[in-house]
Automatic annotation (TrEMBL):
Taxonomic placement: Eukaryota, Viridiplantae, Streptophyta, Embryophyta, Tracheophyta
Gene name, Swiss-Prot/TrEMBL: LOC111299058
InterPro entries reported for this sequence: Enod93
Organism encoding this protein: Durio zibethinus
Protein's recorded name: Early nodulin-93-like isoform X2
Length: 103
């Protein structure tokens, strides 16, 4: 009987941890997507403008190169911001969990 109670408590704790992990990852994805959109716009405008105005860029940067520049910056922004957001949320939740255990 006591073993079943301990197992149900462990399962409840595991479910709570899983729900918290899903929420942390969802927040990271949302923040990363926002950062990727902003970075895409911030990169696309000067890239496309330089291709129209600078003779060197017009000669050497074809459509594939322009897309590669923009998508690389967007991808980097996504992963950096998503990682930082997930880590910050996990850190905040771990401190909250420690303070709840002490009380």
């Amino acid at each position: 009987m006591a073993k079943n109670v301990a197992q149900s408590a462990n399962l409840a704790s595991l479910d709570q941890k899983l729900a918290m992990a899903k929420r942390c990852s969802h927040e990271g994805v949302a923040a990363g997507a926002k950062a990727a959109i902003v970075a895409s716009m911030a990169t696309a405008i000067p890239t496309l403008a330089s291709v129209r105005m600078l003779p060197w860029a017009r000669t050497n940067l074809n459509h594939t190169a322009q897309a590669l520049i923009i998508s690389t910056v967007a991808g980097a922004a996504y992963f950096i911001v998503a990682d930082k957001t997930v880590l910050a949320t996990a850190r905040k939740n771990s401190f909250r969990h420690v303070s709840n255990m002490e009380a």
